[in-house]
Amino acid sequence: MLLNEEYVELKEVFAVKLKRRRSVGQQKGGTLLGITLFQCVKKGKKLKDHAIHLSNMSEDHCEVWLRHFKDILNGFRNRPKSLKVFVNPNSHRKEANQIYSEQIAPLFKLADIKTATTITEYKGHALSALKECDLKEFDGVICVGGDGFANEVAYGLLLRAQMDAGRDTDSIFTPVRAPLPLGIIPAGSTDIVAYSVQGIRHPLTAAMHIIMGHYQSVDVCTFSTHSRLLRFGFSAMFGFGGRTLALAEKHRWMPSSQRREFAVIKTLANLKPEECELTFLPLKNPKQESQKTTRSKLKRDSSNHFDNVDQWQSIQGLFLNISIMAIPCLCSMAPKGLAPDTRLDNGSMSLIAVRNTSRADFIKHLKRYGSLKNQFSFPFVETYTVQEVKLKPQSTSGWADDSSEENVKVDSKRTPMISSEKNYPWNIDGDLMEASSEVNIRVHPRLITLFGVTTEEFDDSTVKCSCI
């Protein structure tokens, strides 16, 4: 109920309904009590719905005001009216379906948003569906799941855009933007992409960003080999991050949290470096450029931001982990981000190369992600702000299975482990990708729009160390 001095901004209202008193079991009719406005309110980083009751028992008055409010709400053209929803029932603790049906779907219905929902039945189901379904009737695509599923849906949206534009993904090409915005309802274990664009891992907040039509353009990377597109993605890890995910995928029978912890501990116990060469195109004066670049001034042509187009650099040696990230990669274990200097839409990537060192020092580096200390202030960690990277493994064959007990006696300070298998594991947004040769990673500014806000709008995080 509003007091005499209170008012509500209509731009914060997303739904209006008649309020009636009904007896138990009564579905229709009832005594009219007035009108209820449903408002989006912000509490810290969270967005929630709040009901405001306006009392009036006149049917005529309430009907007039109901139509008037609905006309106003229909005037917000940026808000979606129809959504295609993909739900991954196997994400994390298999809670995605429950989260959507009990928390998210009722809000969409309240906001008069029409939905067409697909419960995926296998890995790649959403990707296949997006290649074929008619997207013209929708104002956005929503995925309910973890990071790997978000990557699959984003990949499907972007791949569909290239198909519709006639782009040849088996050759060097300039990708076109995704045709529809993507909304991510977090239902995974870390939810890095959702956390980075929403500032919090909270399904209701994600739903409210979608309902209210909050949009944020986001940079995307292409991963290719021999000029053939392998994947679209927001971030990648090679080495420790890739092998940890590969090991976790082989133990799908475990509960998700136990599987992740097991894979991290096992990979740390069998820590081995990768021998490879990194060639990259750096961004000149990245800190200064980042300060100058704002969303209002950012041009679509990323070449305007880079003054050193021909100044490629190269490093090589033994590396424990290599990260390439186009977004900050926020999560509960790294509240400042795995790549804290990266922005969502400034046309650059963070390249973080961790050279070979002792297991103890590497663990210290990992622990820093969950603290206020600088995780990069180690002599074996190198960071660069880049627009393109080429990663080439120096050996001709891939890494051995890290779960093999035969790997234990190898000198990890000098010699990388290899096997007859020719595939190297990559962690692309929590989804496993394998590649046998050089991988080229390029950033494409503002290639996709996500429902959310820019990281500059987030409040300061309370840092809690919950990592290793």
Task: Describe the SSE topology.
Elements: E1 13-21, E2 31-43, E3 46-55, H1 59-74, E4 82-87, H2 96-110, E5 114-119, H3 125-132, E6 140-145, H4 147-164, E7 182-186, H5 192-198, H6 203-212, E8 215-225, E9 228-233, E10 235-239, H7 240-249, H8 256-269, E11 274-282, H9 286-292, E12 313-325, E13 349-355, H10 359-368, E14 381-393, E15 424-428, E16 431-435, E17 439-451
Parallel strand pairs: 4-5, 4-6, 6-7
Antiparallel strand pairs: 1-2, 2-3, 8-9, 8-17, 10-12, 10-15, 11-12, 11-14, 12-13, 13-14, 14-17, 15-16
Outline the structure in words.
The protein has 468 residues and is of the alpha+beta class. It has ten helices and 17 strands. Strands 8, 9, 10, 11, 12, 13, 14, 15, 16 and 17 form a ten-stranded antiparallel β-sheet that branches. It has a four-stranded parallel β-sheet with strand order 5-4-6-7, sandwiched between helices. Helix 7 packs across helix 8.
What would the keywords be for this entry?
disordered C terminus; 17 strands; four-stranded parallel β-sheet; 468 residues; single chain; ten-stranded antiparallel β-sheet; alpha+beta; 25% helix
